[in-house]
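Q: Joint fold for the lines below.
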Amino acid sequence: MDQSKLKEFLDSSPSIQEIRKFAKMLGLRIKRTMKKRDLLKLLKKELETLEITSSVTSSQHNGEERLHPSLPMDFDLPSSYGKDRLVLLPVNPRWIHAYWDFSSNSRQKLLASEATLRLYDVTNIIFDGNNAHRIKEMRISACEGNWYFEVDFSDADYLAEIGYYESGKFFPLFRSNLVRTPSDHPKFTEREKWIDLSTRKAKVIVVGNGEKHFSEKNIGTLTTSFMNPSSEEFVKYLETHMSGGAMHE
Amino acid sequence: MSNGYFVLTLHAHLPYINHPDFSEFMEEKWLFEAINETYLPLLRVFKRLKSDHIPFKVTMSITPPLMEMLSNPDLKRKYLSHLTKLIELSEKEVKRTAAEHPKKHKMAKFYLDDFKALKELYESINGDIVSAFMEFQRSGNLEIITCNATHGFLPLMARYPEAVNAQIKIGIETYRSHTGILPKGIWLAECGYTPGVDEFLRKHDLSFFFVDSHALWFSDPAARYGVYRPVITPSGVFAFARDPESSQQVWSAEIGYPGDSRYREFYRDVGFDREDWYVAPYVDPSGERHNTGIKYHKITSKKVSLNQKDYYDIDEAMQAVKEHAHDFAMKKKEQVQRLFETLGGIEPVIVAPFDAELYGHWWFEGPYFIEEFFRAIVDIKELNPATPPEVINAIDIVQEVTPAASTWGANGYNEVWLNGKNDWIYRHLDEMIEKMIKLAREYYKEKDTLKIRALNQMARELLLAQSSDWAFIITTGTTVEYAANRTKTHIKRFNDLFEKLHSNSLDPKELETLEWVDGIFKDIDYRIYAG
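A: Joint structure:
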């Protein structure tokens, strides 16, 4: 941005919307609460800085960039990295997040068919493509995207595939990582493993039948959320609930 | 005799915010406020307790980005100028309030003296806050631990061992470069644990970490004593779990101490209450108003609106501190006695972790509460304040369990850092991680200094983008734009460097600028990602 353009703009008695847009373009830090005169003040200050620096040095760079390279900006990020990718991330015991991206090859293939995303419950099995306990399925477009799956079980293993249907048969193209939903219930055992810290030797203690586990009486509860993590109410709920150690501003 | 242990843990952390090309930057003030309201006041408390021979024990994580910022010359200079201006403002306030109200005037004088004392303290320790805290580690009162490198959220990067390993290892190296010694334990960002993370801790000789309560309620198998005894993971690292009762007593919105009517009201501040022209020199150059730290009102009642709050009185608040510290001490005594009995003569370990900044910054009187609490338990022989290494030394036998995946975020899992508002982040972070791993292997024996510098800078951009703070703020915060833009900017810088590295068009000048503005971890070695 050179100073004459900024000067010209300021002389054109711009509207507040125009000023905001212009200031944003310059990469200036503006706040929603700023009034027109604040914005004008900011631009005038910028003009002064430009005048000072341009008299010192001439540069091929944009003035703002040169002056304030650390300023975080609202960059557009790549929407696709051009690779086949299907990722599962655990949200909580009952929700899994999936996101995906395509190579141009797969994209072509899927454009011509019924692109499908499948989520498999593969808890305690070696998955061979056909033996999942349960399958959830949805149609997707041949574009990068994401989805939240509500699942039936905590502490269970899930895996997903993207593929297409042809003559009623599912053909997988690629597969996701394996993800385990967090546990939300206690697991009691009769055989506890204890380590003697002086010898580092392990020993198994068998818990008597009649003996009531201390933890059985002292386990707290957590609210498992069944709200869709992508919904607005859900985020609102998070905003108002404190974290374990803390309360946040 | 002792009936049990009390492990007070403070997690001191702020994301890396450094804008050396700006004379003032709004978000840098988070650090200055935390120094003024939390870190220096805590140091003062520790000094007083020490000189009065009170046997206090606090576990404190000072995260790598915080250590880096606390020792950054630009930020130190800016902090001093911030404090100097604050003293100037308090001087004006002392004059102005003389004609306003005696209670305001009393507080104005208090602030002036207090800020001057803070400045003296800061100068007396040569602006070296980390070393000042370390002195209390040497005297056996503090156990300072580290945190993973940039407070990255490990449960969502667990698919990449190289990325988790880098977060842990750089956390340890940064601690060492600032303190000269190795940390014994670690605070995992957001208390975020997922089975397997402990293996990386073991690999780097960390002896213990912290988890939230349900990590042991739902562990495999359930921990015999619930959260009241540490456990050991299959890889041999001790896990200490949060006691929900202690957190509730201190922080609950309904019954927590900080809500007492006599305590200082956070949301009334001269930064908002005075005229534009008057506060202009003390707020952001854009004119955007913010807290200055000079506050004249007390909470009064949760039912009255902000403009109906009564004037604050520090002496009245200190009375409340004494009452609350005494009450908390009694509750802890009662709790260890009760648990000691139920556990059949085994000493319970009560773990109470908090964000450090909540003491002082949020709850103004918090540091004094800590002080009075340790004074109050001197005579309570049943309650033994301790650090995790001391607890570990005192136990003979420990149960081995695998803690459950958990965090201390709302609801206890990952939703604060992964929901409809911030899920867009992860496809970029994953891509960056994969590229970084690949490059670290490909360029492992690189000799060209410019390329090496670019690769190191890419590692920095990745680590900075991983800070859990950005996703957190996007979910809950008021500075969403800054957090989202920080994420995007680090991703963009990484991607640009990647392109330039490949097309052999690295620009030394540009690289130098990035090394300046994103100059965290100056000794980083990208090859850490080779695995």
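Q: Anything notable?
A: DSSP finds seven helices and ten strands in chain A. Residues 53-63, 245-249 of chain A have pLDDT under 50 and may be disordered.
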